[in-house]
């Protein structure tokens, strides 16, 4: 269980994630692909160019912060995203890479 203090801190980040989200995720993909070019071939480059991935990831991170105290609201979407990632063949070892570069991008942009 998250403490009330953690919930309050996470919730307080929601407004900046809403306004700066795509700036953060754009920076995230750039940094991650520079460090891990091997991941380039699992992403759809048209969606990347059109900014769809940047927007989808930003919206999800924002929703996770906003609904940190009402996770049941986002469970249906998270379940759908999880199925999509399984279908894409994303492996457990990929998640720490995304976590690392998401935090680096948040630090860089904010
Ligand atoms: C907490 C971690 C993650 C979140 C919140 C997340 C979020 C998302 C979202 C919202 C989408 C769009 C889904 C849709 O279009 O229906 C997506 C797609 C995708 N994600 Fe993730 N993701 C995460 C981790 C990862 C990891 C670890 C990888 C692999 C390095 C990855 C690779 C992909 C790929 C390849 C797509 C398809 C995008 C495309 O080619 O257009 N994701 N992700």
Ranges where pLDDT stays below 50 over 5 or more residues in a row are none
Beta-strand portion reads under 5%
What profile does the largest beta sheet have?
none
SSE topology string:
HHHHHH
Q: What percentage of residues falls in helices of 4 or more residues?
A: over 70%
CATH homologous superfamily heading: Globins
CA radius of gyration: 14 Å
Instruction: List how many beta strands DSSP finds.
Output: 0
Counted up, domains total 1
Calculate the terminal CA-CA distance, rounded to whole Å. 28 Å
**Quick check: average pLDDT?**
95
Which geometry do the CA atoms define?
A: globular
Instruction: Give the helix tally.
Output: 6
Using the coordinates shown, work out and report the CATH topology.
Answer: Globin-like
Regarding quaternary structure, how should these chains be classified?
A: single chain
Which descriptors would you attach to this protein?
single chain; mainly alpha; Globin-like; binds protoporphyrin IX containing FE
Kindly describe this structure:
By secondary structure, the protein is mostly helical. It has a single domain (4-109), classed as Globin-like, CATH 1.10.490.10. Helix content is 73%, strand content 0%. α2 crosses α4 (52-66). It is globular, with a radius of gyration of 14 Å. The model has no long low-confidence stretch (mean pLDDT 95). Bound molecules: protoporphyrin IX containing FE. Protoporphyrin IX containing FE is lined by residues 39, 42-44, 47, 53, 56-57, 60, 81, 84-85, 88, 90, 94-95, 98.
């Amino acid at each position: 269980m998250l403490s009330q203090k953690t919930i309050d801190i996470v919730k307080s980040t929601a407004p900046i994630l809403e306004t700066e989200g795509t700036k953060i995720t754009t920076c995230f993909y750039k940094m991650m692909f520079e460090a891990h070019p091997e991941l380039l071939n699992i992403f759809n480059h048209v969606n990347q160019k059109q900014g769809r991935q940047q927007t989808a990831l930003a919206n999800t991170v924002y929703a996770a912060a906003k609904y940190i105290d009402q996770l049941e609201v986002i469970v249906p979407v998270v379940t759908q995203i999880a199925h999509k990632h399984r279908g894409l063949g994303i492996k457990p070892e990929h998640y720490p890479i995304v976590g690392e570069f998401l935090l680096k991008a948040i630090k860089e942009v904010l």
